[in-house]
Amino acid sequence: xxxxxxxxxxxxAAGALALVPILAPPFYANLLVPFYGYAIALLGFNLLFxxxxxxxxxxxxxxxxxxxxxxxxxxxxxxxxFEVVLLAAALAGLILALPLGWLAVRYRGxxxxxxxxxxxxxxxxxxxxxxxxxxxxxxxxxxxxxxxxLEFSAYNxxxxxxxxxxxxxxxxxxxxxxxxxxxxxxxxGLHLRSLRDNAQKAEYLGVRVHQFRLAxxxxxxxxxAVGGTIxxxxxxxxxxELVYWTHSGHLVFMTVLGGFxxxxxxxxxxxxxxxxxxxxxxxxxYWRLVLGAILALVVIFLPRGLAGLAIDAGQFLGRxxxxxxxxxxxxxx
Amino acid sequence: xxxxxxxxxxxxxxGIFHAAVLFLVAAGLQLVFGVQKxxxxxxxxxxxxxxxxxxxxxxxxxxxxxxxxxxLPLLLIAGLLMALIGPPIERLLRTVYDRxxxxxxxxxxxxxxxxxxxxxxxxxxxxxSLDNVHLVYGKWTxxxxxxxxYNLLVISAALLAAILIGLFLRRTNFGRxxxxxxxxxxxxxxxxxxxxxxxxxxxxxxxxxxxLGGALxxxxxxxxxDMAVEFVIEAFAVVVIGGLGSMPGALAGAGLVxxxxxxxxxxxxxxxxxxxYLIVIGVLLLRPSGLFGRPAT
Amino acid sequence: MxxxxxxxxxxxxxxxxxxxAPGVFAPAVAQAKPCRVGILAPRSGIAASAGESGxxxxxxxxxxxxxxxxxxxxxIELVIEEETNPKDTIERxxxxxxxxxxxxxxxxxxxxxxxxxxxxxxxARALTIYWDGTTQDGVDEKLPNPKYLFRSTDNECExxxxxxxxxxxxxxxxxxxxxxxxxxSYGRNNMAAFVALLKxxxxxxxxxxxxxxxxxxxxxxxxVAALKAAKPDLIFSSLLFADLPVFxxxxxxxxxxxxxxxxxxxxGWQHTLMKKDFxxxxxxxxxxxxxxxxxxxxxxQKEFVTWYADRFKDYPNWEADxxxxxxxxxxxxxxxxxxxxxxxxPTIDDVIGALEGSSVESLGGKGSWRKDHIADQxxxxxxxxxANKYDFVTLDPARIETMYSTELQKPAGANxxxxxxxxxxxx
Lengths: 333, 297, 427
What we know:
The structure holds 3 protein chains of 3 kinds. Chain A is an all-alpha fold. Chain A contains 15 helices and 2 strands. In chain A, α3 (60-76) crosses α11 (209-235) and α4 runs antiparallel to α11. Chain B has a domain at 24-225. In chain B, α1 packs across α10 (227-242), α1 (3-36) packs antiparallel against α11 and α3 packs antiparallel against α9.
């Protein structure tokens, strides 16, 4: 898809999102706040999955890390500035990702998946067991924080979430996306893709496979923690269920639904799944069945996800363009 | 038998019983991974399916007048019957064989989600169990130590399954075919092996082991909605410790997990769950191929 | 708006607990839009059976109330959403309040969710009545004086009652104690309450082993073996999920239950699975706020239990009562407030005022709301018996104990441990 028209589409989408609190009922603005959290986390997740080829089935671990960091800093230590908490969460993400990643990226494929699954479940067990520190099953409270130094005391939490915080998250998400865009377009990003496709060859060419994968893991951890902080602020609670393995599965679902082979695919997936799940849960009590069926259909028939579908549609409509090359089936944009 | 010994014996036999059930499901996982390179997240769902259907069949049979000792045969039949979902599910997975292994993993995750609601739809929200029907086989008691014969029967069944699978893989033609396909699918295909049939058979066998495990465990346990999602973790722990794709690994892994849990409960109950995860991570880091598996890339 | 207790009770008697005389409110507002009640109940996972019980009771209540003209003449309509984890449940709650615009939200069974949802309900200014949820972190109240939120009795009520029963009937007959409780706040608080009460009454005891099985795990053979090795005089257990009947079965098979005193405050949740085959007689067995076979059951309870048994071939557990209490007390409060204000439909503040201090006849007995929006309800526990027509255990009618929760839970603002030490317990 041509860069210009892609950029235009993104601008339009961002504009539409910016209008949601104004035009749509406040419920939808509230509903979309966690979407931004997931979007940021998934941008990081896809750096690891789509660009580096490592599927982590324990990524929700970082979501939890972000939420609990917010709980400790704002809840226990009384820090009011959300920016400080975000930075702390990013730092925590980095600190945790480095040792975990260093151990994990030696492996690929299913071994990597299982190791990350084990990390996630170990974290779940720890959060549950050490209840004196972590609150156990009741979790830890995440109180309201100040955004850009402003308290917004006139707003109750609902209004805060559907208003100022919504725009805060939108901006944060845009910044995170921009930063990630620079990362994947940089030589580092290129190297990641090359070692995803052929690690041995990349190594011969001088790419330090292990370090690059570790760097990708670390970045994904940082993004995950930041996303988790948004989730924690929104819910007002950090609880162990955030890191359960099915939540990690959910992240993968969103990524695949949107399309892991395109840059914004996971973000699209997060948006669609957030809205879809809301609608489904109101329609039927058997929403898991429907979601599972949708995932199965996407996996079988839409391997490049909704983004892939959109790209194909775009190319179909712009018939004057030459046929897509093989390169477009991998993460290209 | 002195009290301390019988206490330990009780604990150990409990651990071995749990290990036996774990082995059955893990063996199913290993077979499927070994040959098809698919990690089946829905193994827990098959386990739960065997459990739920086992209860239904036993209740039906007993209320239709069958004698109590028909419990074990009925459970075995239940396991066998539920394995019939193997072929259609394999057919579904077949659509993504040629894709990246993450797709296969995801498809099995989709199955997990769907099964959750199927269980609720068919069997409702209440947990289900069989009353102590299995005590019809009696108990073996030595002083303070006592174990229901049913438990010993299940342990023997698991061991028998282990031996049969081993013989099957090593001595029969089909078993050799399986191992050849596992080693090198392209080569096997070139040599005329009908890989499709092999895959279908393997997956069904793997499913059977899962449903059988669930059916056999249900008399001493219960069937509930969250058992599928919870069990996956333990089954994976076994498979990782034993080594992905290895049958002896499944046996060793199951034995280890079962016994460690049992002993942890006596020595340091708080750490029971953590112990398993730490061992999993330890194994993955120090010897990622597990105790018996082949080295990972 | 202060109503004297007498006035409240008289008007309660006049309208009749649970049913409005048809036509009292109907004519002028016959075409009024329905009263929408949002329900948040678990439908999957370990608490699914509780959710189902509660939903069924709510639906029964709604049918009954609607047959009598609804609430203040408005038909009741239920909007049902699922309670899952805190984050998602908050989203469903917001949908109920902002999109579906329900008049009241009821439900919630899990501790984590209750705690997270509390502040959200307050911010949303949405009248919310928890079935079986608190806003406690352990035993500490985290939301001491909410305006819009009404919560259930403290989780420790059943443990306190069982402990009192154990002390009353078995004082001097046990020394070594073993605990097997689910490894989360509910299990920990129950066990801690039991031990604290033993200390308070100077009962000589020694805790020789504490087992903490993972919540909902059904692999309990090793726990049973560990307990058997310890040979305790008494076993205290607040197991209440699917693991409870499994434990009982395995304990029976291992002959752990012979000769050991058993104290099981929450066993009533799974009562129909506690078959006579493996559940002994004489164990202290708690049914919380609904004992389906209570010889002193009100006609209301009998009607409900009969309906439930006919319809579902099963007998209800206490979650049904919690759900009924929520909707019944809501109805009473709305009608009380409308009546005294003379309006067709009261404001939310009026309803809140009417709820505080109010009291209704719930399925299992009287229930009322304290000023701090925590419920007081009737608790029933007793000793298990096989002498009944069912295949599971019930309570020995000669030794049923009924206590009102004012005796079982800490008063508003009190610290749990201090209260335990100083309270006047009737035993």
